[in-house]
């Protein structure tokens, strides 16, 4: 008897400069699609107040990170402000094999690695409506000094230029609109003919 | 002073075998996107009870259709059950130039002509969940005899095989789900990077 090959899940890579509202957007999307798997990065960054290990990140020490990296266990990794962040290749592959779609909330460096490795992912970049607006949002945070804020803004501008090679761009001027757009991208990618071939053949052959 | 080139609209071509629920779906979508332009076909088919000229179709006689066709005024046209149906190329181009997105609700023959002419459209095929379900839906209509119904079902199966070259497939098992998917495709296509280039450059250069 022919065994049907289970269709692999899709990877949605979401990047954004800090202050673009990525965390809020991703949380809203996880409520819309409870079956969507949110990949949790490994990081050497110490937990901040409110961070939960295994929910926000897998917090590990630099030695452990290095070991995992040496064993090729990261699909991508990046160093940001002196801390390392990486996505477990093993977990990612397992979830995709099970047919689940995955969201990878990672920075531009990591996304570029995945693109260069020809990961068949869907790359989505979230933009602030303007640089001024981003500046205002960052300054409202007040969790860091002026110098750190300016450093962050400068980095954000560099990151935003990366948006030029992404598949989809979402401008986050209104959370509700951005949410509908991200939801739309996820639904649309799942309706692509290449993805629907099995379903179509079943309908045509009356299975 | 540099004049900004207005971005052209997108064309969404929606095809389906009869009984797949296309009319209901398209009406629902027009309520979601009031700015979306619904292209109205010209036809030589006589109006049925309830048909409104200029809303459902532009009803014209065969001579007029032939004249328009001879002048190359149709972007696509097809003959179905002895009647002709065509899309005005002039109206289509005008609406797209104005930056409006357009939905073309046309049959597989017409869609194939547009694809062959390399129209940069987005081709969406709406499918019934199964051939049996389609048969039931068609038989519930009771507006036609058994022979006509069987002819229609046979034609539907041929048309459904065309779905293999479309960009997106939507299975209409639940109207609400199908509506979300079509809405998602429209939103997603408008977020594609190629389409967002102007917006991105404006954000990056602070315009």
Strand and helix layout:
2 copies of one chain form a homodimer.
Chain A: E1 11-15, H1 22-32, E2 37-38, E3 42-43, E4 58-59, H2 62-70, E5 74-80, E6 83-88, H3 89-97, E7 102-105, H4 108-116, E8 122-127, H5 131-141, H6 146-161, E9 168-171, H7 175-191, H8 193-205
Parallel strand pairs in A: 1-7, 1-8, 2-7, 3-4, 8-9
Antiparallel strand pairs in A: 3-6, 5-6
Helix pairs in contact in A: 1-7, 5-6
Which CATH architecture of the domain at 11-39 and 101-205 in chain A is right?
3-Layer(aba) Sandwich
Number of strands of chain A: 9
For the record, give the distance between the C-alpha atoms at the N and C termini of chain A, rounded to a whole number. Answer: 15 Å
Counting DSSP H or I runs of 4 or more residues, the number of helices of chain A is 8
Radius of gyration of chain A: 19 Å
Quick one: CATH superfamily of the domain at 11-39 and 101-205 in chain A?
P-loop containing nucleotide triphosphate hydrolases
Helix/strand/pairing class of chain A, anyone? Answer: alpha/beta
| CATH fold topology of the domain at 11-39 and 101-205 in chain A | Rossmann fold
Tell me the name of the CATH class of the domain at 11-39 and 101-205 in chain A.
Alpha Beta
Shape of chain A: globular
Uncertain spans of chain A: none
The share of residues in extended strands of chain A comes to 15-25%
State the helicity of chain A in percent bands: 40-55%
Side by side, the strands of the main sheet of chain A go 2-7-1-8-9
- Give me the oligomer status: homodimer
Q: Identify the most extensive interface between protein chains.
A: A-B, 37 and 37 residues
Q: What characterizes the major β-sheet of chain A? A: 5 strands, parallel
Order of helices and strands of chain A: EHEEEHEEHEHEHHEHH
The mean pLDDT of chain A is 91
């Amino acid at each position: 008897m022919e065994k049907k090959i289970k269709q692999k899940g899709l990877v949605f890579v979401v990047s954004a400069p800090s202050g673009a509202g990525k965390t809020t957007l991703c949380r809203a999307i996880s409520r819309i699609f409870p079956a969507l798997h949110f990949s949790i990065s490994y990081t050497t960054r110490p937990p901040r107040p409110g961070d939960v290990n295994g929910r926000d990140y897998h917090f590990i020490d630099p030695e452990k990170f290095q070991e995992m990296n040496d064993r090729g266990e990261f699909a991508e990794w990046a160093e940001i402000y002196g801390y390392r962040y990486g996505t477990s290749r093993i977990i990612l592959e397992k979830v995709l094999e099970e047919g689940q779609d995955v969201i990878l909330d990672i920075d531009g460096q990591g996304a570029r690695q995945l693109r260069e490795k020809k990961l068949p992912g869907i790359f989505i970049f979230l933009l602030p409506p303007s640089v001024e607006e981003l500046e205002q949002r960052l300054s409202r945070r007040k969790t860091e000094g002026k110098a750190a804020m300016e450093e962050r803004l400068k980095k954000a501008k560099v990151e935003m230029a990366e948006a030029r090679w992404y598949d989809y761009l979402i401008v986050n001027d209104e959370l509700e609109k951005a949410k509908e757009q991200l939801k739309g991208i996820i639904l649309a990618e799942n309706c692509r003919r290449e993805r629907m071939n099995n379903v179509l053949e079943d309908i045509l052959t009356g299975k």
